[in-house]
Amino acid sequence: MIRVRSDDHPALRDPASSGRVFFVGLFVLAIWQMARLTEFDLLGLFAAFTDPAPRNFLLGFFPPAHSVAFLTLALVETWRTVAIATCGMFIAGLIGLPIAILLTRVLSLSAMGRPQRGGAVFSSFLRRVLRSLMVFLRSVPELIWALLLVRVVGLGPTAGVLAIAISYSGMLGKVYAEIFESVDPLPTLSLLNQGASRLQAFAFGLLPQCSDELISYSVYRWECAIRSSVILGFVGAGGLGQQMDLSMKMFAGDEVCTLLILFVLLVAFADWASQALRKAWE
Amino acid sequence: MNARLLALFFLFVLIIASFVSLDLHFLVFFETDSVQSMGRFLLEFMHPDLEPQFILKVWYASLETIAMSALSTLIAAFLGLLIAFKASGVRPLLNVLRAVPELVWASLLLIAVGLGPFAGTLALALHTTGVLGRLYLEAIENQTDGPACALRAAGASSAQVFFFARLPQALPQLVSYTVYRWENNIRAAAVLGVVGAGGLGQMLSFHLGLFQMNKAATVIAATLILVALVDSVSDMIRRHLG
Amino acid sequence: MRVELQQVSAGPDPAHSILQNISLRIEEGEHIALIGPSGAGKTTLLHLLGLSLAPHAGQVLYEDRDYWAGRAGLRHRYRAHVMIAPQTPPLPPRQRVVTAIQAARLAHMGFWASLRAWLAPRDLVEVRNVLAEFDLADKLFERVDRLSGGERQRVGLARLAWSLADLWLVDEPLAALDPVRARQAMQVMTRLASEREITLIASFHQVDLALEFFPRVIGLREGHIFFDAAPKDIRQEDVTALFENEKGSD
User: Fold this and answer.
1) Which of A57, A144, A249 to mutate to test the interface with B (most CBs of B within 10 A)?
2) Whose CA is closest to B23, among A169, A152, A87, A241?
3) What are the tens digits of pLDDT across the range A176-235?
4) Which residues of A touch C129 (CB under 8 A)?
5) Can you list the alpha helix ranges (DSSP code H) found in chain A?
6) pLDDT for C53-67, tens place per residue?
7) Cβ contact A78:A268 at 8 Å
8) With contacts defined as CB-CB under 8 Å, which chain A residues touch C133?
9) Within a domain: C143
10) Which of A58, A180, A245, B14 is the most buried (most CB within 10 A)?
């Protein structure tokens, strides 16, 4: 047992301390730089609430707008939000499902009996191209898709539907393919061996094993799409978001409040509906 | 089985009603004018603007985007810790913060603090506080009580118990949640600008508004690179933790 | 510290008392070993003495005061005087040994002092010397989850030694140690307690070590005190009877 008496004994130097000092320094520097870059100004925030415009906007929140005309308009826009999400999801499924089937190696006829090669050169190349296309489709945020599409097809729900369809098809294609790859391949392979076609093998061998998971994931995504479709409205793709954007630009606090309440109710409803659908399916 | 049929029927009606009620015009893609303009767009898109001066601007906007996402995540993490430590009563407030999307917060805050990255940062911070506050609370509530009880039995105050038992025990989990949210926030920060809240998004909507597709292409490319970069950094952090 | 139990019943489950109607007087600076079969109530007794378990009936008096009858704040402040060392020291996995040890004095530190100790450990010389008593000097900055079971248990004892409590309550301190280390740890623990005039109560599985190192040994069986005597007055038959399976039960 060696007793140490002096404070600057090498065994007492905290090996973490220099690192800690360094990181704290770096941290402070980073925060300072970031605050500068983001024009961070908390005093400005407080000052903002003494300005008449934002203050009146906030004070306008209560009571929420409740005229029959506005409520009808808001409800119609809420339905349009749901419809945009539903159409977008439907098209995304139409694109995503075939791609997922193409991506699934178990279903590849050219790969049968030659698993080590992963199929013919062309079909494995095709799979690779499809896969990177899927990655590209879903890594561009849907809001950017909407922004681009609004320039092409003009303001309105078409842009919203297509934006959701494009970015969600990438997501669905990838996840569906993962689900297909994760199930037991033997039933599918035996069907293919008996001479069944690709689609037959898919419908009778693969699908029955994972239909629950497929439905449950799609319904969950539908719920996400409703949230997205509200957001897309802000760039002019129709629905609740577009109306919210308009009301904000007119500083109509009461209308914004009603729309926010409707939004929260809509999200809660979608959550409830998706859970009910999934439960009904099980 | 009946329930399944009912669910399918509901979905069927929903889909039909959606398509019928929206005035969708996909035929636009087959009209000569729009095909021509799309062709022009695409052509310009293939030639992104790579002038040094513009690249510099994009670089600055990328830094701004990173700063918005990181600073807002830090603010949210700090508030989340405060909530996990002392204020489990604010749960309903957290639900409200979380329910309102970042973009809606941003457009609300634009009215209060004006255009620019400050509004975007605050918007991200508000939404993220809702998310992280709840995750932190759950992480701290679900951990084993042993270390905390031992310190309390030795007379430590609740603040001391938090710093010497609860926080170090939950830290890896909290860091991993925070990094995950940062990943999410950089995506959000890149698009918040379309309502005027700074960063790459603001540049994108500006140049798209002027139909400068070559400049828009550069900005989109920068966004994709940025997101991929942050994904790999956060992957690294998580692997280091695990 | 003088502690007195008056007809106490207690247990973690409020509907069921493990300790039944126990009376006991512990003088200041006494060293007491608790032995007995598992389930006899040793751990319950230690937690009861450590103010972390309220009695179902009866009174626990510290220097003639009943802290369970008083305000919770007062009771919590008094906990600075007691230190329980559980059998497996409950330490957060990624915490470093030095921080885990310093946590033993939290009750004697203000909030800011403890925050500073959290950020940058203090009193390194003394902490290292305490660890050296248990052969752990080189583990000062090691992470707790990188220690072996035996090392962790010794960190638990070092944490006890670093605390400023006057009453040490130690649960099976030797369970994870090999015989040589167990004897060493026992020597250090009893020596430190004598030097600082600390009241020490510890439970053991190793009857021989308990009889060798402790002047007073209490045998617990089914929530009752089976014997309470000096080692020289405890016969082999008493120990055998203490651990004997009850007739008719399995």
Assistant:
1) A144
2) A87
3) 999 988 888 888 888 888 878 888 888 888 888 888 888 889 988 999 999 999 999 998
4) 3-4
5) 17-37, 42-48, 52-59, 68-103, 121-139, 142-153, 157-182, 186-193, 198-201, 207-232, 240-249, 253-281
6) 889 988 899 988 888
7) no
8) 1
9) yes
10) A180
User: C161-187 pLDDT, tens per residue?
Assistant: 999 999 999 999 888 888 888 999 999
Of C50, C93, C95, the CB nearest to B153: C50
3-state SS, residue A8: coil
- Indicate whether A137 pLDDT > 70: yes
Domains of chain B by start residue, with CATH: 67-241 (1.10.3720.10)
pLDDT at B178: 93
Considering the domain boundaries, does residue C174 fall inside one?
yes
Q: Among C239, C93, C68, which residue's Cα sits nearest to residue C152? A: C93
Domain with A91 in it: 68-281
Q: Tell me if A153 and B34 make a contact (CB, 8 A cut-off).
A: yes
Phi, psi of A165 (to 5 degrees): -60, -45
Chain C positions in Cβ-Cβ contact with residue A3 (cut-off 8 Å): 129, 132
| 10-residue stretch averages of pLDDT, chain B, 242 residues long | 82 92 81 80 86 94 94 95 85 88 90 88 95 92 87 88 91 91 91 88 90 91 90 84 69
Domain residues for the domain of C50 are: 3-243
Residue A44, in any domain of the structure: no
CATH number for the domain including A208? Answer: 1.10.3720.10
Q: Are A201 and A270 in contact (CB under 8 A)?
A: no
Radius of gyration over alpha carbons of chain C, in Å? 18
ipTM score assigned to the predicted complex: 0.86
Mutate which of B33, B113, B184, B187 to disrupt the A interface (most A C-beta within 10 Å)? B113
Residue C250: predicted pLDDT: 42
Q: Do B153 and C114 touch (CB under 8 A)?
A: no
Nearest-by-Cβ selection for C128 from A11, A15, A20: A11
Give the residue among B216, B233, B226, B231 at the shortest CA–CA distance from B189: B226
Sheet holding C167-171, edge to edge: C82-85, C167-171, C199-203, C31-35, C216-221, C224-229
Q: Which of A6-15, A258-267, B224-233 has the lowest mean pLDDT?
A: A6-15
Cβ–Cβ gap B165/C50 under 8 Å:
no
- For an interface test with B, the pick among C51, C106, C115, C145 (most B C-beta atoms closer than 10 Å) comes out as C106
Q: Is residue C23 part of a domain?
A: yes
| pTM, entire model | 0.83
Question: Across residues C92-100, what is the average pLDDT?
Answer: 87
CATH of the domain at C42: 3.40.50.300
Q: Which chains are within 8 Å of C by 3+ CB pairs?
A: A, B
At residue A7's C-alpha, the angle toward residues A3 and A11, to 5°, is: 60
Residue C248 lies in a domain: no
Q: How many domains does chain A have?
A: 1
In a domain, A26, yes or no: no
Residues A126, A105: contact at Cβ < 8 Å? no
Q: Is C3 helix (H, G, I), strand (E, B) or coil?
A: strand
**Short-list B140, B84, B148, B142, CA closest to C52:** B148
